[in-house]
């Protein structure tokens, strides 16, 4: 019996393992949403398509399984763009069904007509039209396969009238998910082993591409007495139960991580594509192992580039290496790491009840959140507090916008995570700027009954931007935010809300917030002039901040300079 293209697409999506579709219904996808209503798929009705893309991305990132979003032609599909870019950069397997105007109107500048292919081919692993009803299952199956195996977004474009076309659907197109293992050749491994044996101080620098190689990395570090530095995205996989972990490299990192990289004779980069060249060592040999050949040497000049997945490569490499008994390099890094951890804890100490430092909030959240909680942060300062103050224990999960750097991604991505894991605690660490950018989808939490927990770091400014301007010696401009009482906004929508502006009130409020069975929002008024200190404070940064002070005083903003000094250096 013939089926409509809409029915075929929906069935193929189900067969690929998807459980939900995020979007807003409308004209060119009405036949598609009708088919969804007769399937086992859940339609999650968001208020803005960007939130739908974020939510699908959050679900797919956390589960590793296919999530779907769908939108109408023109503005409907275009609203997905930023969320799709974020999701693709995160490596989350998401399928976007992007509809278009009817075929008979294509090419005549019909209202809402856009070239979806040109828009989405830039940042997807698959982007094709269904041009004939007989292609429907084949195109969707191959799109899903590309998303799942290449870890990214796949886009299928369907004209509105195509959904009503019919096909016998006799060809059994399937989604295949092979799991290959790849490593360098024996001669390449032998050469690498010689270089490692010759090096006095080896540091392992591991990224999210080594997420499956925790045990192999620990075994390698044990044999070499080597510290392991990890990228921010690899925190949840490589930090727990790792006695060789010394933290993170880069501007968001810590002193131990930065120094362990720069003191080494040889840095072994495993699944690491950290983008900032200035944080790679200038003198040490860098050896890079990655599954993607295009990643080799694109961030810093390297001594050797090898293709392989980290776990399989280390399984073959480690037995070839001579043990290094000298612990001096490792112990120096571990001593500094302990100092860094103590510093993060001390930064959260509160002596003034009227001044809440965001580190105090993050430290408390770390203590009271569930052992298997899922944390999703906005870009900017909430991301820093998550990375520095929320401990990874092997059960907790973390997601933030480290590659795309977009505002407003925290609670939309957390929606998808919470829907996928209804029995786990999911916490969105939101900036006030990010919250207000997409605040309308708080209504989605109520309508779709998503018991998400939202923590708003309310500092009334675009904090990271303000800090950037001040560090460059500028008087900050256009960063201030006039915010409402977010707890009252939440209550008006139907979400339980609490507001805290005194440190002594935070503990009780946080307990009530986390215990609330439905969606809940905690609005915490935190210090506006909090400096996000880099791992090493350079003389130029101090000088630039001082220059801000001079300019601010001359501009009549003396109180801000006093606050900056008191709240960051004199407390």
TrEMBL record:
Keyword Thylakoid on this protein? no
Record domain Thiamine pyrophosphate enzyme central: where: 190-317
The record's listing under Pfam families reads: TPP_enzyme_C (PF02775), TPP_enzyme_M (PF00205), TPP_enzyme_N (PF02776)
Question: A Gene Ontology MF term for this entry?
Answer: thiamine pyrophosphate binding
The text of the family note is: Belongs to the TPP enzyme family.
> How is this protein named in the record?
Ubiquinone-dependent pyruvate dehydrogenase
Alphabetized, the UniProt keywords read:
Pyruvate, Thiamine pyrophosphate, Ubiquinone
Q: Which biological process terms from the Gene Ontology are attached to this UniProt entry?
A: carboxylic acid metabolic process
